[in-house]
Amino acid sequence: MIKLFNDYRFKIINKSLGEIMCGIVACIIKDEASTVLLECVRRLEYRGYDSVGIATLSEDIYIKKGEGKIDDVQEKIVLTDIPGNMGIAHVRWATHGLPTGKNAHPHTDCQKRIAVVHNGIIENYKELKNKLIDEGHIFVSDTDTEVIPHLIEKYMDMGNGLEVATRMATKDIKGSYAIAAISSDEPDKIIGVRKESPLIVGVGEKEFFIASDVPAVLDHTNKIIYLNDNEMVILTAEGVIIKDDEGKVLEKEIETIEWTSDMAKKGGYKHFMLKEIHEQPEVVKNTLMEYSEIEKVVQNFSDFKRVCFVACGTSYHASLVGKYLFETLLGIPTDVVLSSEFIFSEPSLDSDTLVIFISQSGETADTLKALKVAKKNLKPL
Ligand code: GLU
Predict the structure, then answer these.
(1) Which residue's CA lies nearest to atom 8 of ligand 1?
(2) Which end of the chain has fewer CB atoms within 10 angstroms, the N or the C?
């Protein structure tokens, strides 16, 4: 069996291509912010993540971050002992750079006077990073995100405030983003801005929030402003101002959300299934936004004569659709094997077979077990 496995080739596609999830939260409140930030970002856990981080601002910026689940990181390094009544938080779903503490958000500029959390993908980060390095900026992570605080730094160094510098930075960026940024040079505000990644504003009683989704803030306020693409929010202890990408103030409607916290998790739908059915257009859009990533993976497929999907439950049924598509559109014979059977079956796979493991949550025990066995015995692509 080992010998046979050794002939396989496989590649792990680390993330579900349909989901560019993760979550960001920011707040200015009356009390210490770190505990509230952690509690809010916990409400976004359902979106999936691999690491977590918080930055608070009193006179300086304080950052705590680490790889893993919120509770585990909290137990190891205590995320909530940093001072300040304002801050930003992030649960990361790594797209660029491994899920490590170093790559976890928030990311900072060279002087650590700007901190940024980001949800999305900066498509032109390589050229921006090279240019910034040529200009003397020092990078410490492998993420695409880190270009953002350095761009803001560059524009602040030219004499602009955080708001204008962030707006200028977004003009340099190609791709998708929801961003929250703070600076110790302007310790009275948080800037949020979005394009193709979700961002909402929570308007409480002298407490103001930014978040990727409504459930994050619902314990604090049910007054919500939905930001559109290219809109920016400036959060201060006095209130919120929304501007367009030219800096013009916009009048936005504040909506009152009547959902319960439980309904909010389901996006206001009665059942998760209904929510997921309605999310399909967004999921297809998100998947296509990763076209270049998909292309990189798919271009290897022509090397193979057979495909074997390994999956459970809904992923198993999705794989059956995959089998139909691969066979009819690509003419590649395709099998679908239940994860629980994979380690027992010795299907006639050889070095011309591509094995693809699919898991919706990324945590399906049988699929992970099959993958573990495969990783131990198979040859990477
Ligand atoms: N592209 C960024 C990263 O890999 C953000 C990913 C996210 O949305 O969590 O760090």
Answers:
(1) 119
(2) N
HEC string for 301-369: HHHCCEEEEEECHHHHHHHHHHHHHHHHHHCCCEEEEEHHHHCCCCCCCCCCEEEEEECCCCCCHHHHH
Instruction: Decide whether any atom of ligand 1 lies within 6 Å of the 145 Cβ.
Output: yes
How far is the centre of ligand 1, averaged over its atoms, from the C-alpha of 97 (Å)? Answer: 9
Q: How far is CA 304 from CA 167, 308, 318, 351, in A?
A: 46, 11, 21, 8
Place of tokens 């459970």: 312
Question: Cα–Cα distance between 45 and 347 in angstroms, integer?
Answer: 37
Considering the entire predicted model, what is its pTM? 0.72
Q: Any idea what DSSP says for residue 196?
A: B
Ligand 1 atom nearest residue 141's Cα: 10
Give residue 374 CA to ligand 1 midpoint distance, Å.
Answer: 27
Tokens 């994979």 appear where? 342
For ligand 1, whether the C-beta of 96 sits within 6 Å is yes
pLDDT in tens, 55-109: 999 989 999 999 999 999 999 999 999 999 999 999 998 989 999 999 999 999 9
Digit-coded pLDDT (tens) for 169-193 = 999 999 889 999 999 999 999 999 9
| 92 Cα nearest atom in ligand 1 | 9
User: 242 with 252: CB under 8 angstroms?
Assistant: yes
Atom nearest to 122 CA in ligand 1: 1
Measured distance CA(64)–CA(117) in Å, rounded: 13
How many Å apart are CA 31 and CA 137, to the nearest integer? Answer: 35
